[in-house]
Design a protein that fits this description.
The protein is of the alpha+beta class. The chain is built from one helix and nine strands; from the N terminus they run αβββββββββ. The radius of gyration is 21 Å and the shape is globular.
C-alpha cells in the first residue's frame, strides 16, 4: 500500500511539472519593455515618480541614506494633493530600500514626497509589448 502511494505521488508530481512546463511557464512569461532607470528628485510636495498610465510594473528605490520617502498611487493627476507624508506609504532610507509594484491598472500614477529637503529616487517602468 505504501509503495502504491509513493508511486502515485511521484506520478502526480511529474504531471504537475509537465503541466507547468507546457502551460504555466508561458502564462507567467509576459513580454514587457523596460525603460532605462531614471533618478527623480523628490521634494516636500508630491512629485511624479511614474506617470505614464500605460505602465504595468514600476520599480523604485530610495537612494537617500537618512530620509524616508512617502509614496502613493492616484487614479489621475487631480488627486496628487492627497499624497502627503501623513497619507503616504513609507519607504525607509538606504541603498537597498526598493519596492516593485506589479499588475498596476491602467491610469494609476505613482508619486512621492519627502518630509524635508529632497530625496533621490531611482525609478524604472515596464510596459506591455
Amino acid at each position: 500500500m505504501a509503495k502504491l502511494g509513493a508511486m502515485t505521488m511521484t506520478r502526480l508530481f511529474r504531471s504537475i511539472l509537465l503541466a507547468f512546463a507546457l502551460i504555466g511557464a508561458g502564462a507567467l512569461a509576459a513580454a514587457y519593455s523596460f525603460k532605462p532607470p531614471v533618478t527623480v528628485s523628490v521634494g516636500t510636495t508630491a512629485t511624479a515618480l511614474a506617470t505614464n498610465p500605460r505602465h504595468v510594473y514600476v520599480y523604485f528605490c530610495n537612494l537617500d541614506v537618512s530620509k524616508t520617502l512617502y509614496w502613493g498611487i492616484v487614479g489621475d493627476a487631480s488627486q496628487v494633493a492627497t499624497i502627503t507624508t501623513a497619507s503616504g506609504m513609507p519607504l525607509p532610507p538606504g541603498p537597498y530600500s526598493c519596492l516593485g509594484l506589479t499588475e498596476l491598472a491602467g491610469g494609476q500614477l505613482l508619486y512621492g514626497v519627502a518630509t524635508t529637503g529632497t530625496i533621490d529616487v531611482r525609478v524604472t517602468e515596464a510596459f506591455p509589448q
